[in-house]
Amino acid sequence: MRGGSRVRFCRTLAVLASMLLVPLIGPGAIADASGWHPPRRECECATPSIDRLQHWIASGEGTTVPPTGSLLVREGGGYAAKVAFLKAEWHVVVVWLGNQFEAQADLTKSAGFWMTYSATDDLYVQLRPASHWSGGDKWLTKVPSTGGKLVKKFFSFAPDAWTTLPELGKPTYSFVSALAEARGLVFVGKTPNKLDFRGLAIDRYQPPCR
Asked: Domain holding 140: CATH number?
């Protein structure tokens, strides 16, 4: 299948699946391992990616392995993003939703995202908007430990599913406004952790390959 045809095929599948699934689960529901997920082999980018997300980055904040740069490694027929948090300090991992820093996405019509991952301890994921990218004072939701087992979990974009941490500060903007100009998902954790990401599929949004 040629590149342009493959992208149109993937987009059609994603839209159809979202239309079928969202009315069933509702904005605050949890999808299990049988939930929607785009076909990986047909939909990935020409360069390494996970669900068309090409930039999984260790930011250099906190002691991590790798310390900086891409987390993507070959795993079977695709890729995984793997990182270890080593100390009792804040660690930061960044995923650019538009596959370049300057890009942003309007996720106001999205119910949330499905993530396939393993974690040995709890952590958080922040939704960072383009207009308020820097700093720790962001809306976030808990990413629970899986005990090191690979699981698939739905994370809702319902505003009441997102909160703040006093230690990091409270944002001056609403969560809904952040959805409208989402630049990245940023994973943060303050404890030693071993993380392995295999999927991150966002309802009603397909990242552009760069």
From this structure: 2.60.120.260
Joined together, the tokens standing for residue 69 give 């740069």
- Domain presence at residue 210: no
Contact 164, 136 (CB under 8 A): no
Nearest to 72 by CA among 198, 184, 194, 192: 198
The structure tokens 């809904």 sit at 176
C-alpha distances in Å from residue 206, one per residue of 15, 44, 62: 9, 10, 30
pLDDT of residue 43: 86
The Cα–Cα gap between 72 and 171 comes to: 30
Tens digits of per-residue pLDDT, 97-112? Answer: 999 999 999 999 999 9
Q: How far, rounded to the nearest angstrom, does the alpha carbon of residue 204 sit from its chain's CA centroid?
A: 14
Q: Is residue 208 part of a domain?
A: no
**Residue range of the domain that includes 127:** 3-202
In degrees, rounded to 5, the angle at the alpha carbon of residue 12 between the alpha carbons of residues 201 and 33 is 35
**Cα(34)–Cα(46) distance, rounded to whole angstroms?**
27
31-47: average pLDDT: 59
Per-residue DSSP letters for 151-205? EEEEEE--GGG-B-BTTTB--SS-HHHHHHTEEEEEEEESS-EEEEEEEEEETT-
